[in-house]
Write a structure and sequence with these properties.
By secondary structure, the chain is of the alpha/beta class. It is built from 16 helices and 8 strands. The chain has an 8-stranded mixed beta sheet with strand order 6-5-4-3-2-1-7-8, sandwiched between helices.
Length: about 350
């Protein structure tokens, strides 16, 4: 149902020229029980939508065309009503995912068995992972992977490429194969709730080594490795124009010059085909801009109207976020991105039907 709904929304958006929130990332909380080296979202913890308000937001966005809902944080499993929110989304037939750090998976297995995929952070072997996310976090992730595999829950691992783990992509891919998961990779970059300036630069891998590793991942993808990223995603982030675009200016709170935006090799559909909702109900054109100033409040304007207004708040210099890049490709009907998504859906359906772990 969600696939047909999403494709119908893409076509309607193209024909009518109207904005449709086909995919929405909902940050349920900024609270987090980890302190990752490149993230400071926990510092923004504050007001959160009540259960009733969160369900109403989902209903409004569904009526406006939403087919895919990503639940994230902070750590979304810290919400006491997470089971209620998931059940509501699944009752609407939404393709629903949860992004978690893995530490609370065992307590929420019943809920996680209801989602279409669980996204788990995995930054490499114990030393690399714990250096970025805290001592003991690697073991928690491995336990989560085993529990989710045992309960036949589709898993996507997410790896942020930094100087600390740039040489560990082989380990991540091997781990994905071992647990029947799909591995996603994206470079570290500065955004509204990341660490800033020199701290980000210190985390970046040396540019030549980074390019070598991305080319290796592209090669592995073409050979059938269990990678969530599409081929055009890797091509996009290797494009030198993209590198210049993402490094120019550099904080999402600063308006990029119109001229520089035209140099991006992909069309950004933030605020037109996808968006994001903050814990307190403000609507952003994408999850990267959830901290942008002046965002419309969905509680006051209505979430569909707030989504339409959100495009006015695109003040960024580009990003490497897998969620936004892949959405741009998919909703632009890029043939290879479409085939990549169809392949993952077929893989997931086979997984759910047979109960076997895909290789």
């Amino acid at each position: 149902m969600s696939v047909i709904r999403t494709l119908g929304g893409v076509l309607w958006s193209r024909i009518s020229g109207r904005s449709v929130p086909l995919a929405v990332t909902m940050a349920l909380t900024y609270r987090c029980n980890l302190r990752c080296g490149y993230c400071q979202i926990w510092k923004e913890a504050g007001q959160e939508l009540s259960t009733t308000q969160a369900l109403a937001a989902i209903d409004e966005l569904y009526e406006a065309g939403m087919g895919r809902l990503g639940l994230t944080g902070g750590e979304p499993l810290l919400r006491e009503d997470i089971a209620t929110i998931v059940e509501h989304a699944r009752g609407l037939g939404l393709f629903t995912t949860i992004f978690t750090n893995g530490t609370l998976v065992e307590q929420h297995l019943h809920t996680l068995r209801r989602v279409d995929a669980v996204l788990l952070s995995l930054d490499g072997p114990r030393e690399a992972h714990d250096s970025l996310r805290g001592r003991g976090s690697f073991d928690a992730t491995l336990r989560a992977l085993e529990l989710l595999r045992r309960h036949r829950v589709p898993v996507w691992t997410n790896t942020v490429l930094t100087a600390h783990n740039i040489d560990q992509v082989g380990f991540v891919l091997d781990t994905a194969r071992r647990f029947g998961a799909l591995a996603a990779f994206q470079p570290v970059f500065e955004h509204s709730y990341s660490v800033k300036g020199e701290k980000v630069e210190q985390l970046r891998a040396e540019r030549q080594r980074y390019a070598e590793v991305v080319r290796h991942l592209l090669q592995q993808k073409r050979r059938g490795a269990p990678l969530l990223n599409s081929v055009p995603f890797f091509e996009q982030i290797l494009d030198p124009r993209r590198e210049q675009h993402a490094r120019r200016g550099a904080s999402p709170g600063v308006r990029a010059e119109r001229a520089s935006q035209t140099q991006s090799p992909r069309r950004c559909l933030a605020g037109r085909s996808y968006g994001a909702v903050s814990p307190e109900g403000r609507v952003a054109p994408c999850p990267i801009l959830l901290q942008a100033p002046g965002l419309p409040d969905g509680r006051l304007a209505g979430y569909a109207e707030a989504f339409r207004r959100s495009a006015r708040h695109i003040r960024c210099s580009g990003c490497y976020c897998i969620a936004t890049v892949e959405s741009d490709l998919l909703f632009s009907l890029d043939a290879r991105a479409l085939l990549n998504t169809v392949g993952h859906l077929v893989r997931r359906r086979g997984h759910a039907t047979t109960g076997e772990q895909p290789r």
